[in-house]
């Protein structure tokens, strides 16, 4: 660390707690990673929580002359969110959402994930305008700072055009809130010179007819190259100019601490279709016609190589599989309507327009939300999915350019020719065709000067082609960053570039805000600090560090995320191979145990968000290795009934202690003891012991025979009671509910000693896990009459374990295994009538239920039992089997967002995993119960309704 940074850090320690000032090699490497192809490791990372802390950072940066970069989710692609100086991370503490004017506007803090803003607006039939493919991960601050647009918003609905108000902190620490008249008035007095300078720059453009025409022409296209100097001519008031200049400024002019957007309609009636063309020229001419027709809301072009890249995805029309024609291309089209009639008319108009351009095949428009979601999910994941197919050791580069739409076909052909000329034959093209906006992805290797020179030559030619010959945009929506900073002047010319340099000097005279981004004196900056992607493990080598996994990770904010675990492991493997930095390697290894391995839930939720399905938990399990207590695991598996009996006895003692000391005091004592001796930490809401398994109802009632269903009670439900006080059993509610639907449970032989093996597997005791699995499979096969009778699995994680084992051929294929949620939704719900008895209900979809694809069914079941249902975006609660007892900090970290996400008056919650319910009840402040108990309370036989 440099002396300046050491002095900066020492002074900053008086303003920011030490635990949020990061300097160790592991976490600086981890936090310093973004989705771009640049790698810079910051000397100091500041996990800032409020404006006062950011103000302190900026003031001390000026005093000590150290550069500062602010970042949010790190999904940016052009190197604008990395730093080798001070990196300020904006996330926790910046997640405020305020819906205004019945959804017409929304006020957001910069740490809000884009999708969460849309979730808050859904009930108003509105959404924010920007819709980048990364919206489920990207945060509002980064989206605003990069002027993100996306697949459907075009230019009219991007951040610039939907901006209502802005709160921004300048480099000198001054805060301007354009929604606050007093703030604006004070700013006009304190920063009169700055505002006058903006007006002078505006007049400079307006007084130059050629430059004025160029600015207007270039912003008819999507354009994020350089600063948004259209703000200087779109507005008369310099305060409005300033606010709009901040959009797309990539943290180089100031820090956006709050933004208010005008929202846009989110029509409930939507339809999508896929259309294949044998000839690219026909495809592009169809795009022009569709744009002129005005009936489409989004049109995505996918070239031939992209078609080949998505062929491993399920749910696509049959004509997209197989070998496409040499010049083939496809369009993904979406249209919307205020009602079904308008939607049908628009679909018909689009279909008629397309027929003139000789489509080879089309899927027809689908209004099925699941089908449409599949189409668009494939498109959103195309960049990471393509990147995952690159050769190990190469780097994934994505650039996005915009051509005038009438020159789209020629632009695609010329780009493809450049790929071939420079030997990037793996490259492919896709993008937002209506705007002439194309993304191209390729995989250069930066492992030698010759390869870097090849990349440099290619970028030079691309820049001349797009910016000069076609008059297009080198950066349409991903931001200038470091990669296009050397080409801003080429695209804009001397006059416009001088205006941009003047803006940078006006707002950041010391040049300390995100240097070398947008404006750089180094014409080689795009060729420096290129990210190496060395082989680490075949389980994760396909990762391109996009960060899509991070919101689903329960250890995000506690230790490392899946992306960060992979980044650190790559670096460690590289250092082990080349031996170049033994001290750094030792430091990484020392911290990786807890941060990388111990605090990973290993539930696989990262795989559900990863476009290529990378399960970082698999790597973690591999690195953890086999259990050191295999012998103990073997004995536990052989005497499972006695082990569970001991656990129930322990819960009885816990219940007694709570009765004497109270729940909170008992929990505090437990935590204190756990620091001294390795005993489990029982969360506050840990229930008492379960009662004995109840007897199933009789098979015949009132002369009507009932259908048998094998009921497998997971060991966790045989240990923990359904209610907090204990003394009952989940099966009591389940049996009652099944009885109402005309089913009679059949218990497998030796039920008390059966286990799916999940507890053993999660601890690396593979042999014990496999024996437990086989014994359970044999018992279920016997109870089900060799697979004739369906099997009901009453705990979501156990369901996933058994169903995946059967898919892998480890259990008899004749078994009809059903997770509880799917059986209840498909077999029980049609035979009962539900009467809602809860006013407001929270639903938690366990990670295992998500991986089984039954999350929507769980929510639908809950909606039949309550007038209002809320589903907080908590992909994994972090309880992760027994980690809620052994690593309680993981569960607490994941659920710290639960209480704020619950609506006022929410009296309870529901889930389908017993341990999840314990953690949720402990941290949510409301009781969570099983879906069986909830449905049993609300259900009567359909014949009785």
UniProtKB/TrEMBL annotation:
Which cofactor(s) does the record list?
FAD
Q: Where is the FAD-binding PCMH-type domain?
A: 38-266
* Top-rank lineage group of the source organism: Bacteria
| Domain named 4Fe-4S ferredoxin-type: residues | 532-563
Broadest EC class assigned to this enzyme: oxidoreductase
Q: Name one GO molecular function term.
A: FAD binding
| GO process annotations (BP) | lactate catabolic process
Q: Which of UniProt's keywords are assigned here? A: FAD, Flavoprotein, Iron, Iron-sulfur, Metal-binding, Oxidoreductase, Transit peptide
Q: Which EC numbers characterise this protein's activity in its record?
A: 1.1.2.4
Which Pfam family, just one, is annotated for this protein?
Answer: FAD-oxidase_C
What family does the entry list?
Belongs to the FAD-binding oxidoreductase/transferase type 4 family.
From the Swiss-Prot or TrEMBL record, give the protein name.
D-lactate dehydrogenase (cytochrome)
Tell me the classification of the organism that encodes this protein.
Bacteria, Pseudomonadati, Pseudomonadota, Betaproteobacteria, Burkholderiales
């Amino acid at each position: 660390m440099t002396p300046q940074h050491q002095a900066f850090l020492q002074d900053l320690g008086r303003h920011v707690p030490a635990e949020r000032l990061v300097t160790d090699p592991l976490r600086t490497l981890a936090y310093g990673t973004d989705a771009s192809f640049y790698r810079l490791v910051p000397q100091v990372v500041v996990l800032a929580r409020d404006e006062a802390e950011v103000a302190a950072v900026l003031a001390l940066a000026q005093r000590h002359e150290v550069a500062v970069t602010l970042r949010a989710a790190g999904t940016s692609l052009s190197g604008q969110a990395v730093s080798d100086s001070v990196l300020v991370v904006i996330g926790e503490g910046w997640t405020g959402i305020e819906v205004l004017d019945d959804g017409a506007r929304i006020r957001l803090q910069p740490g809000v994930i884009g999708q969460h803003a849309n979730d808050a607006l859904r009930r108003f039939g509105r959404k924010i305008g920007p819709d980048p493919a990364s919206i489920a991960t990207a945060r509002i601050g980064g989206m605003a700072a990069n002027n993100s647009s996306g697949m459907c918003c075009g230019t009219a609905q991007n951040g610039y055009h939907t901006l209502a108000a802005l709160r921004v902190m300048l480099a000198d620490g001054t805060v301007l809130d354009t929604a606050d008249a007093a703030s604006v008035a004070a700013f006009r007095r304190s920063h009169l010179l700055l505002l006058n300078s903006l007006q002078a720059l505006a007049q400079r453009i307006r007084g130059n007819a050629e430059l004025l025409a160029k600015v207007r022409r270039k912003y008819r296209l999507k354009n994020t190259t350089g600063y948004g100097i259209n703000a200087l001519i779109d507005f008369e008031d310099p305060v409005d100019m300033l606010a709009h200049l901040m959009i797309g400024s990539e943290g180089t002019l100031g820090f956006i601490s709050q933004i208010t957007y005008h929202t846009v309609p989110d029509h409930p009636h939507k339809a999508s279709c896929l259309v294949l063309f044998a000839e690219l020229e026909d495809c592009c001419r169809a795009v022009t016609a569709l744009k002129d027709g005005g009936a489409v809301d989004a049109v995505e072009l996918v070239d031939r190589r992209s078609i080949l890249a998505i062929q491993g995805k399920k749910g696509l029309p049959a004509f997209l599989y197989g070998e496409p024609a040499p010049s083939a291309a496809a369009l993904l089209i979406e249209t919307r309507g205020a009602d079904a009639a308008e939607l049908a008319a628009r679909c018909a108009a689009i279909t008629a327009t397309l027929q003139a351009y000789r489509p080879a095949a089309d899927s027809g428009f689908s209004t099925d939300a699941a089908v449409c979601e599949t189409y668009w999910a494939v498109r959103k994941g195309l960049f990471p999915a393509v990147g995952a197919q690159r050769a190990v050791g190469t780097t994934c580069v994505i650039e996005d350019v915009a051509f005038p739409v009438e020159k789209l076909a020629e632009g695609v052909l010329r780009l493809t020719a450049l790929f071939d000329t420079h030997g990037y034959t793996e490259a492919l093209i896709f993008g937002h065709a209506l705007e002439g906006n194309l993304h191209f992805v390729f995989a250069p290797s930066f492992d030698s000067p010759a390869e870097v020179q090849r990349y440099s030559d290619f970028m030079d030619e691309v820049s001349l082609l797009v910016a000069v010959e076609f008059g297009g945009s080198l950066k349409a929506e991903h931001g200038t960053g470091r990669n296009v900073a050397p080409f801003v002047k080429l695209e804009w010319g001397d006059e416009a570039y001088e205006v941009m340099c003047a803006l940078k000097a006006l707002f950041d005279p010391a040049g300390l805000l995100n240097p070398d981004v947008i404006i750089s004196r180094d014409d080689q900056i795009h060729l420096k600090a290129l990210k190496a992607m060395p082989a680490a493990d075949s389980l994760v080598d396909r990762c391109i560090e996009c960060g899509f996994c991070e919101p689903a990770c329960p250890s995000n904010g506690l230790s490392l995320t899946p992306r960060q675990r992979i980044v650190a492991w790559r670096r460690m493997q590289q250092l082990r191979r080349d031996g170049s930095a033994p001290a750094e390697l030792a430091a990484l290894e020392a911290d990786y145990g807890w941060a990388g391995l111990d605090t990973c839930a290993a539930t696989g939720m990262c795989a559900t968000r990863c476009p290529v399905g990378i399960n970082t938990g698999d790597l973690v399990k591999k690195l953890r290795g086999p259990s050191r207590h295999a012998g103990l695991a073997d004995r536990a598996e052989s005497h499972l009934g006695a082990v569970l009996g001991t656990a129930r006895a322990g819960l009885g003692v816990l219940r007694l202690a709570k009765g004497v000391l109270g729940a909170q005091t008992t929990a505090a004592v437990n935590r204190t003891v756990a620091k001294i001796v390795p005993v489990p930490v029982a969360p506050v809401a840990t229930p008492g012991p379960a009662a004995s398994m109840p007897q199933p109802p009789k098979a015949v009632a009132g002369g009507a025979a009932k259908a048998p269903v094998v009921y497998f009670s997971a060991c966790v439900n045989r240990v923990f009671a359904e209610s907090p006080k204990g003394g009952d059993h989940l099966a009591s509610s389940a049996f009652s509910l099944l009885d109402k639907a005309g089913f009679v449970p059949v218990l497998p032989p030796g039920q008390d000693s059966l286990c799916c093996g999940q507890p053993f597997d999660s601890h690396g005791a593979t042999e014990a896990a496999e024996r437990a699995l086989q014994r359970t499979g044999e018992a279920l096969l016997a109870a089900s009459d060799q697979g004739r009778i369906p099997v009901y699995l009453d705990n979501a994680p156990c369901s996933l374990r058994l169903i995946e084992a059967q898919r892998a051929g480890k259990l008899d294929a004749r078994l009809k295994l059903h997770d509880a949620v799917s059986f209840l939704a498909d077999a029980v719900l049609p035979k009962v009538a539900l009467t809602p008895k809860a006013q407001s209900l929270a639903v938690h979809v366990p990670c295992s239920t998500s991986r089984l694809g039954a999350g929507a069914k769980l929510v639908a079941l809950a909606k039949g039992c309550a007038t209002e249902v809320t589903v907080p975006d908590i992909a994994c609660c972090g309880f992760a089997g027994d980690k809620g007892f052994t690593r309680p900090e993981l569960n607490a970290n994941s659920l710290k967002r639960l209480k704020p996400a619950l609506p006022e008056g929410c009296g309870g919650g529901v889930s389908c995993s017993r341990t999840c319910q314990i953690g949720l009840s402990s941290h949510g402040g409301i009781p969570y119960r099983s879906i069986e108990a909830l449905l049993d309370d609300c259900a009567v036989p359909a014949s009785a309704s």
